[in-house]
Amino acid sequence: MIEYHSLTDGALCSAEGVPEAGAPALWIDLCNPTRWEERLIAERVGIAVPTRAEMTEIEDSSRLYVDGRALVMTVAVIEGMADGRPRRAQVTFVLLPQVLITVRHANPVPLRTIAARVARNPGESDTAPRLMATILEAFVERIADVLEQVSADLNTISDMVFFEDAAEPQEQDLKRLVQRLGRQNRTLSILRESLLSFDRLLPFLRDATSGKAAKTEDEPAPNVARLSSKGAARLKAIERDVKSLSAYEAQTEQELTFLHAATIGLIGVEQNQIIKALSVAAALFLPPTLVGTVYGMNFRDMPELGWQYGYPIALGAMAVSALLPYLWFRRRKWL
């Protein structure tokens, strides 16, 4: 699907389809585009639109490059938080001097809410480079929101594991906590990749839009979009946010690793308690079993078989043989 957006009276106005020649399109959004739609946009703007396979490549040369008058930049983003199944997706920005093109095969939250963000301050999104800066700010704020959710959930898990206000968690509860920690680890992994991609994109974009980018050492910087000094300052602020979020993500990852190890340790302790109880029970019943086995052999010449007090004495011997190990375990504080 292709949508194009123009800024009219301080608001983003959207329409489906390819903008007519000369139409004041500020942003063209390709969501799950078909090959025909990709070729159609490529013919209209003169720039090859990256395919889905090209967007998933991880090397910098495939994610950040200059194509004629366009800056092509691909970042990893997170989606699926609402349904509890976080997954990574890629969004490609094709920045031309007059229009911004986004290519995506997902529907992340920042792109769904960008119109409301632009309406609050339309003067900061009235050109393609400024609109891209606004979208980048929205993505970084989304990362911060997800990190806050993960941190809050880890605090809840920490209370459940380490504080004894409630009953001690059972093994099944601990297993569910391990699964919960696994989901948060997946979320942090995607956020880490996303922050890394933004950390690489922002210097590239800042240098390119300030005229420092060049294809070769002997070739001047291409005629790409330009940002004002205020726009460059916005990118610097976003860079600082990305670096601070990266540090926060690393700290959160350490906390998650500790909680995971502690939860696994508690599961091991609980299982050891079960094995201990079974071992003690086996040790307590082993001597009575031995006595009962001896007097259950029914040999003809066993003198105790004909003894009047043999049966009660045998029962007493069983009880004493179980009681003595029990008292010994209690004295050694094994029970």
Characterize the structure shown.
The chain is 57% helix and 14% strand. By secondary structure, it is an alpha+beta fold. A seven-stranded mixed beta sheet has the order 2-1-3-7-6-5-4.
From N to C, what is the helix and strand string? EEEHHHEEEEHHHHHH
Number-wise, the strands total: 7
Discrete helix count: 9
- Tell me the Rg in angstroms: 34 Å
Major sheet: size, sense and barrel closure? 7 strands, mixed
Return the domain count: 2
Question: What topology emerges from the helices and strands here?
Answer:
Layout: E1 2-8, E2 11-16, E3 27-31, H1 35-45, H2 52-55, H3 60-63, E4 64-67, E5 70-79, E6 87-95, E7 100-104, H4 109-112, H5 114-120, H6 128-162, H7 171-209, H8 229-294, H9 310-331
Keywords:
335 residues; alpha+beta; Beta Polymerase, domain 2; Methane Monooxygenase Hydroxylase, Chain G, domain 1; seven-stranded mixed β-sheet; 9 helices
